[in-house]
Amino acid sequence: MTVLVLGLLIFLGAHSVRIFAEDWREARIAQMGEKRWKAAYSIASIVGLVLIIWGYGIARREPTVLWAPPIWAPHLAALLTLIAFILFPAAHMPGNHFKSALKHPMVIGVALWAFAHLVANGTLNALVLFGAFLVWAIVDFAAARRRDRAAQIEYPKGTLSSDVKAVVAGAIAWAIFVFFLHGWLIGVKPLG
């Protein structure tokens, strides 16, 4: 569990600098330059992600079961992760209703992904991993909305064509991940 927690601290720590130390972040960017800052941020994120994956794999060998997920949990998780996968491209595609309504669809997608996996897994390592991401997403969303209000950011109204692009891109990515990559990368086939 130590490797998993270390990975979470590095990964979520790097992704939390803007939440808790915006002035420090801006000073580092001014000092280092944007490219060097992004390189350091990317390296920290990759190291953290590798440690999370490795640590979760180690913890899965001897899981501590906390509860038995209900029989319907994988189906709810599949639906919630489908929505999360749609929200990821919506965050980067201009002019869609998801971004207009939710403001920060990727962070909401992370929260849905984490919640879905909490419902479908009943082990301590799953609680640590997905619980950490869920808490981080809630805190990050609140911080992002505060920044939006302070900067008086308005999100433009969306168009149906942009919505369709986000839905199609997300659904295709979800299907590829659920039916092919999840079993290969994670060792679990979510829908059998």
TrEMBL record:
InterPro entries: NnrU_dom (IPR009915). It is a multi-pass membrane protein. The chain crosses the membrane at residues 40-59, 71-90, 110-143, 164-186. Keywords: Membrane, Transmembrane, Transmembrane helix. This is NnrU family protein. Residues 3-190 form the NnrU domain. It is found in: Membrane.
